[in-house]
Amino acid sequence: MSKDRGFRARALGEIAIRCADMSAMVAFYETVIGLERLYGDHNSAIVFFRIAEGFGGHTQVLALFHHVAAPRPGLHPIGADRPVTGGGSALHHIALSLPFEEQDAVLRWYDEIGQPYRIEEFGWIGWRGIFTEDPEGNTVELVAYDPSLLT
Question: Which long-range contacts (CB under 8 A, 24 or more apart) does 87-92 make?
């Protein structure tokens, strides 16, 4: 039984990743993935990238937080230890959407720069994902819908 709460989420506003090597992570998301940097640089404690226009004036963003940075103490986890990434992390992966017609360009780009990847199709929903890893071992998927993939 569902209740009318009077609200429902309409879009993803932000993905925030705690990281140790800001320089490598900024370079990856800017040059490998191609996100537009909105705020900060490789020396910053926090860097924001635009993913898409989003909903209701809130730009969808990817935020990188250096693991020892807490601009608002008590609101963000901090610690001297490097964040756990890869298989030991609670983050399974992040997926960024793009048109199916651009996936061949992704494969060419990754081949050109030597970025390892794998491809997986999800016929139950008509998606194809191209998976790679960022410098700290987080899985990043570039996913697209194609109705011909529906099984």
Answer: 87/137, 89/137, 89/138, 91/17, 91/138, 92/139
